[in-house]
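Box 3.1. Reading complex inputs
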Amino acid sequence: MKYWLMKSEPAEFSIDDLARVGREPWTGVRNYQARNFMRDGMRPGDGVLFYHSNCAVPGVVGLAEVASAAYPDPTQFDPRSDYYDPKSDPHDPRWLLVDIAFKRKLARTISLAELRADAERLGDFPLIRRGNRLSVLPVTAAQFRHILSLE
DNA sequence: GCCAACGTTGGC
DNA sequence: GCCAACGTTGGC
């Protein structure tokens, strides 16, 4: 079992949205490294820290889990979608996704600022590395436990 | 294969 | 809204 952190802009899709629908195909990832984590690393049941980005208080706001194996992201073939990719071949889809299932909301937001302040305990962590822009990234079991212990 | 230009991410 | 950091694109 592995652990991950997945970013979402709450104005687009928040932890409350996930709580309401229960389960969501993680559409729109258009970065190869993030895709590779979903395609090659994720297995159903893996733990996911749900992170709000590009908002007043960016941070971890909930707990989810990987709920499917990777499969092609349908939005890449939809010309009306913001995520349409005309260069993707339907016989060899470029973009994959997994379904994410809601587990619970955290009692409070564990902010990016707090995580930065705890950098020493967390060790090497892509989220708090300078200039990091990955929207899907791996978390070690120790980091996962530690972050939740801050709740 | 190099690299400048451009677009995007995302914190602040 | 600003801007640093980074990925992608395309000319050469």
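In summary: Residues 31-33, 130-133 of chain A lie near DNA strand C (CB under 10 Å from a C1').
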